[in-house]
Structure formats: C-alpha cells, structure tokens
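User: Fold both of these, please.

Assistant: Here is the first one.
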Amino acid sequence: KTPVEKTPPATTAAEGTEAFLNINSIPPSTCFLDGRSLGSTPKVHVSVKPGAHTVKFVNSDQGLTKTISVNVGAGETKAAVAKLQ
C-alpha cells in the first residue's frame, strides 16, 4: 500500500509529454531550434514538445544556410540532419 505503486513509472509519464531530436549537419554549423540558438552541431537527444519544429542550420564561414521542418511524436526520437551546400 505504498504510494509508489499507484504512481506510473517516470518513463511512462515522460513519453506522453516529451520528444527528442538528434540534430546534425555536414559541414558543422550553428543550429537554431524554433528560432532559439542551440550552438554548434551535433546536438544529441534534445528534448522538445511533440509536434512540428523548425531547425535552421547556419555555417557563416562558408555562407551556407538550410532550414528543415521535422514532426516528432510523443516519446519519439527523430533525426534532423542537413547537408549544406
């Protein structure tokens, strides 16, 4: 009769509210998730809300930019990868 038995495991609770992105680019770049700078690629296991997200890659040294959209469901991990040219 402990309260722990009635509480769902943390992993189950997190699956409904969190999703993750693995962000990378070739060549390396500065990445922006929904307009917020995350710094240099790669970024692994970035926590996001489920739904559509915009990832922008900027390589100012070579004057390259690319923007992609990725849709990730609750509990999913998706790759957001771009080849800049």
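And the second sequence with its predicted structure:
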Amino acid sequence: MTDWTWEQINHHSYLTEGPVWDGSVLLYNECAGNTTWQYDPAAGMASLWRSNTGGSNGQNYSSAGRLFNCEGTG
C-alpha cells in the first residue's frame, strides 16, 4: 500500500462519506450539504446526483442492485 497515489476528485464544504462503486461511477454523500455526488472517472468529473438527501451518509447496494442510504436527519 505504500505505492498508492491519491487524487482529490472534488472540493466540498462539508464532510463526505459513504462511497459506493457500481462498476462505472462512484457515488458519495456530502452529509451536512444534503447531497449525493457522482464521480465519473472516465470523464474526470464529479456532478450533483441527488439533493435533499435527509443527511445521507453511509450507503450500499443490495444484491439486487438497489441503492440504500442511511439518512442521519431523515
């Protein structure tokens, strides 16, 4: 693990949590911002995916591919 390199993919005002990978994009939550972001590594871009998330933090996909979020204020 000492040969890893890190790249910041976006700048946010609040803590981010709950990254999940679907095979093509990374979704992650900006908790206090009540937003979920999508990062597309092929495009090198992050974009707003969902707002008014109820303070979503942790998230995961079910075996059927459904996305579940833990809403801290929802």
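The longest strand covers residues 45-51.
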